């Protein structure tokens, strides 16, 4: 991270994200060069000499140049994210909480909000709210008539989320479902709401992704969109030597989605990787 660069964001909070889960994937080649420096001791000056580099210039890929997002470049990207003040406050408050690395990054939240707006979405679902950063980003761009079902099992993080919905003046648009997300989705289906949602974002228990996806595919209308987070899982999905349950499950999910003719797909290397699925 270029420490001296002026950024619109809390440098402290973002540095935590930058050396943490969210950026680690995209700067993986850089991180592997760090020669065993413990994660907590890696600071921006460690990365300062690193330049965005071509990670794939093999002729078999048509000599395409795919850059690595170094901390300096990521810092630049963040200066170009229009993060609403209320989201900045929520991010900074969450930075001191347990699990803060789970929060989507500002540029991811901006992309989610953009998708919602492009779709003209009115009815949305989020699976995995935590303290509400991504759900608030969505709720902020929904029209007054818009509606977001927000599923989360942890009451403590929901308290923070609800406080921010209120502060942002969007509480009336958010229907919080406290409990297991799959139960909430099943009851929406039982309630006759299949095919009535425009947009869904999945960011909860990764081993449940296939189940969430199947339920959401029922709930989302034709040409509706489902976005799944963490599909690159810090790069572990591409490493055949990593075979823990979560990695294997995400890898299998990615394979299934790739072959699933019910949706068109686009895997996007932003944050920890998302896949955007459009129901056919
Ligand atoms: C990665 S975090 C979500 C981050 C959130 N999207 C944000 O940007 O702040 C995952 C959340 O999913 C919740 N979760 C995990 N399994 C769940 C389940 N089965 N049902 C409901 N929530 C669940 C966790 O409690 C956690 O808060």
TrEMBL record:
PROSITE patterns hit by this protein: SAM_OMT_I
Gene Ontology MF annotations: O-methyltransferase activity; S-adenosylmethionine-dependent methyltransferase activity
Matching Pfam families: Methyltransf_3 (PF01596)
Keyword Hydrolase set for record: no
Keyword Transferase: yes
One example of a Gene Ontology biological process annotation: methylation
Matching CDD domains: AdoMet_MTases (cd02440)
Transmembrane segments: none
InterPro entries reported for this sequence: Cation-dep_OMT, SAM-dependent_MTases_sf, SAM_O-MeTrfase
Keywords, sorted A to Z: Methyltransferase, S-adenosyl-L-methionine, Transferase
Family: Belongs to the class I-like SAM-binding methyltransferase superfamily. Cation-dependent O-methyltransferase family.
Name under which the protein is recorded: Caffeoyl-CoA O-methyltransferase
Organism of derivation: Vitis vinifera (Grape)
